[in-house]
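Supplementary notes for students who missed Thursday's class. We covered one full example, reproduced here. Read the sequence, then the structure, then the short commentary at the end.
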Amino acid sequence: MRLGYARRTATQAALLVALLGLTLFVTGSGGALAAVIGAQAASGEPGVTVQIPVVLSLGADTADRMGFSLEITPNGAAPPLTGNTTNLSFLAQDVPSPGMVTPTKYTIRCAWLSFVDPPITGTVLLGYVRAKIPSTAQPGHNWTVHMVSVGASLGDFELTTDAGPDVLLSVPGGGEAGGAITVSITLASLGVNVSPTNWALDTVAPESAKSSWATGVAGYFTATNTGNIAEDFTISTGATSHGWQPALGSGHDQYVIAYGVGVSPYTTPPSYTPFTVGGALADSVVPSGIVRFDLRFTAPSADSAYDPGGESFTVSVGATATS
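Structure (token representation):
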């Protein structure tokens, strides 16, 4: 009886050393045994205490004592558990409560110092590490649960024991694999700005044309996408102050307005496209993108209501979302 007591005390000491970070291998005629102790992922809302399962997997082997140490550390912007007012705790499940529990706010060590009777076989749920998620946590925040050290034994023999892989403790809503996922919603905004806003034609003879084009210049007018999505620019015009109507060909009280986008090196006039109530100026202009263009005006062949004060009309540049 005294000899048996001495052997159990020695094994108890070996297990405590293993919990401090050393790995012990003691073999007998039965050879080396193997075990895995690991945590499983868990999740919960901010301010809630969650339960992290800790499982011992033995396969065909057997153990009658075990121990583990784990720590929980924040990832990314997640707040540390050190801000909590309570320490971690452990709730045994398929085995008796451990004889030693040493908790802090983010670490815990548990060891079964007495022999478990009957011995354990297969896979058992040792219990739950209980941790409070900080109240300041946000959806998608997560923490790594890492097994620092593990140990298991059968009688006087220490099993070769592996730690399970790291898992995540997380707050639902931001993805729990590979870190937090942030989803942002941005409202689509359309906008276009044109500069300059005036073009003085002066006197133009009937059926004569005048353009804003100048040799070597990319374009007299600049249209800029001031929105936050790709845009198609449109261009349109309307009747003059005294009733001239836009048309595709010059006629009585009909004028022609056309746009053209030059080609580098801008040594020849652009190809002009007449437009009336609407036309396509440019497609797929990215945010902050610009389009430089020129205008060409052709006067009517005759005027029914001549006004010495002159005529005026408006050219409008608009934007639609690129499909």
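Commentary. Residues 1-33, 175-179 have pLDDT under 50 and may be disordered. The domain at 2-170 is CATH 2.60.40.680 (Immunoglobulin-like). If anything here is unclear, bring it to office hours.
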